[in-house]
Structures are given as structure tokens and as C-alpha cells.
């Protein structure tokens, strides 16, 4: 018993030393793992974390989804309102995505107004949703020049462990795919829009984008699906977005620029398509 207790105590001390070293020298800590072609969480450099999608998790929303990507967890709800269209786009409604990174999801975020990171991610999400045509804003028209739908696509990260962009895009697309709107008609006499309580119609969904993000470390290592520990140490983050047929939709890059091999982008694109084919092709199937 004494030997077992001593062994347990020694293991605890080793774990504490490793944790201390990780906090004081994070870059060296990561370098030592990568030198052995493994990452601190045990994954290979090109390995992705498990993903799960649960839809209709919020009963008060028009559509919703809960996504887990490893330990990163994002919930998204879609709320629909009626508004007047813009004068120069009388037949187009509005899609308004937003991501909140509250203090409760990670110690790195503080209470207060939205962080710069949340704003940057929201802008990137808006760019992908619009460019990929998940929902045609024209399909949100109730009466040209009079009434259109506004879809507020609000996502909240409830546990942050890196790669919030991929998880949030999954949550937003799944929530939109599960969204139904009451049948609405515009009454010209009363100048009002009447919504049916009984008849609800699904959104007209176009493409289904899925993002795959990578980080480059020291210009020599490409890490798939980076964690919150790895993210601050990365030179560059590359997000590759593919649609429901595996076709390339967009590529976005944040950081100092790609260093090292000229084919880093091509490697990321090929890896994204392979992951989509192997594990993500049916990720929206449950919805």
C-alpha cells in the first residue's frame, strides 16, 4: 500500500511539474510534443476532434442547433422578425449572424462588451454565409418593397477550447437548416403582414458550407483543428470552406502569412476535402 501511495504521489508531482512548465513556457512545451509528431492532447498533427450536431435544442427559436467540436461547444438559435426591405433591394430580406464569446466560456474572455475576436469571427461568418448562399435573401421576401423576413442567427459559445469558427459555422448552418417560418401574407388594404399560426414552411436552403481550420506553427508544422492552448502560438490560421458536394467555397487566412513550403495552402485544401469525405459529409444529415 505504501508503494502504491508513493507511486501515486510521484505521478501527481510529475503532472504538476508538467502543468507548470506548460504555463511558463508554452511554446517550448508544444515544440517538445511536435518533435515527437504528437500534440499535447494526444492527437496526430492532422487529426480532427470528434464533432456532434443536435438540432432543435431551443424550443423558443424558429430553428436551433448545438454543436460540440471536441470540448468546444456552441449553441445557435434563429429568430425571425418582419421588417421593411432596403430601398435599393426591395425583394431581399436580411441574414444577421452574430457570435458571442462570454466570460463564462473561457478564462481568456472578460465580462463586458463584445471582444474584438468575437467581432472578427462574426464578420468572417457573415462573409461565408453570404458568399456561399446558404439562404438566398430573395427567398426571405414576403411582399416586394413592403415586408421581408429578418433572420437573426445568434450563436453563443458555452465552452471554448479553440476553433470556434468551425464549430460556429456548423451550428449556424444546422440551425438555419432546421428553421421554419410561419406562412406570411401582406395585406395591401391594412398595410400589415399576417402570419399563420398553423402553417410553417422550412427555409429554402442552398449550399451547406463546412469549414476546416488549420494553424501553422514555426513555419514547419500544420496543425488541424487547433485547440485554445495551440491558437495563441500559431503563426497563421487558415480556414478552408467546402460545400455539400466537397467543392471549394472559400479560403481565409489570418496571421503573419504562410511561411516555409509554398504548397501549405494546397495541403490544407486537400486535407479539408479528405476530412469532409471521411467524416463530415453527412454532418448535417441529422437535420
From TrEMBL:
BP terms from Gene Ontology: exonucleolytic trimming to generate mature 3'-end of 5.8S rRNA from tricistronic rRNA transcript (SSU-rRNA, 5.8S rRNA, LSU-rRNA); nuclear mRNA surveillance; nuclear polyadenylation-dependent rRNA catabolic process; rRNA catabolic process; TRAMP-dependent tRNA surveillance pathway; U1 snRNA 3'-end processing; U4 snRNA 3'-end processing; U5 snRNA 3'-end processing
Matches recorded under SUPFAM superfamilies: Ribonuclease PH domain 2-like, Ribosomal protein S5 domain 2-like
Residues covered by the Exoribonuclease phosphorolytic domain: 48-182, 209-274
Principal subcellular localization: cytoplasm
Alphabetically ordered keywords of this record: Cytoplasm, Exosome, Nucleus, RNA-binding, rRNA processing
Similarity-based family: Belongs to the RNase PH family.
Record's GO cellular component terms: cytoplasmic exosome (RNase complex); nuclear exosome (RNase complex); nucleolus
Subcellular location, record wording: Cytoplasm; Nucleus, Nucleolus
Pfam families membership: RNase_PH, RNase_PH_C
Single annotated GO MF: mRNA 3'-UTR AU-rich region binding
Name this polypeptide is given: Ribosomal RNA-processing protein 43
Amino acid at each position: 500500500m505504501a508503494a502504491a501511495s508513493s507511486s501515486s504521489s510521484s505521478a501527481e508531482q510529475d503532472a504538476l511539474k508538467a502543468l507548470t512548465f506548460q504555463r511558463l513556457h508554452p511554446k517550448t512545451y508544444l515544440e517538445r510534443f511536435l518533435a515527437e509528431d504528437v500534440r499535447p492532447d494526444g492527437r496526430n498533427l492532422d487529426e480532427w476532434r470528434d464533432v456532434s450536431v443536435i438540432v432543435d435544442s431551443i424550443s423558443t427559436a424558429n430553428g436551433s442547433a448545438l454543436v460540440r467540436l471536441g470540448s468546444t461547444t456552441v449553441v445557435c438559435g434563429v429568430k425571425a422578425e418582419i421588417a421593411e426591405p432596403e430601398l435599393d433591394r426591395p425583394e431581399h430580406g436580411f441574414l444577421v449572424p452574430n457570435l458571442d464569446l462570454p466570460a463564462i466560456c473561457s478564462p481568456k474572455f472578460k465580462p463586458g462588451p463584445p471582444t474584438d475576436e468575437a467581432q472578427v469571427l462574426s464578420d468572417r461568418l457573415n462573409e461565408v454565409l453570404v458568399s456561399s448562399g446558404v439562404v438566398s435573401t430573395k427567398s426571405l421576401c414576403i411582399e416586394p418593397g413592403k415586408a421581408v423576413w429578418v433572420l437573426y442567427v445568434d450563436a453563443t459559445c458555452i465552452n471554448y477550447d479553440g476553433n470556434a469558427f468551425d464549430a460556429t459555422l456548423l451550428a449556424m448552418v444546422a440551425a438555419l437548416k432546421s428553421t421554419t417560418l410561419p406562412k406570411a401574407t401582406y395585406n395591401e388594404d391594412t398595410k400589415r403582414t399576417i402570419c399563420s399560426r398553423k402553417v410553417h414552411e422550412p427555409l429554402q436552403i442552398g449550399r451547406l458550407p463546412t469549414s476546416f481550420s488549420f494553424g501553422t506553427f514555426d513555419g514547419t508544422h500544420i496543425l488541424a483543428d487547433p485547440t485554445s492552448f495551440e491558437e495563441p502560438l500559431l503563426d497563421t490560421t487558415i480556414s478552408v470552406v467546402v460545400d455539400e458536394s466537397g467543392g471549394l467555397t472559400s479560403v481565409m487566412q489570418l496571421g503573419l502569412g504562410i511561411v516555409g513550403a509554398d504548397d501549405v495552402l494546397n495541403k490544407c485544401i486537400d486535407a479539408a476535402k479528405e476530412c469532409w469525405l471521411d467524416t463530415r459529409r453527412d454532418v448535417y444529415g441529422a437535420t
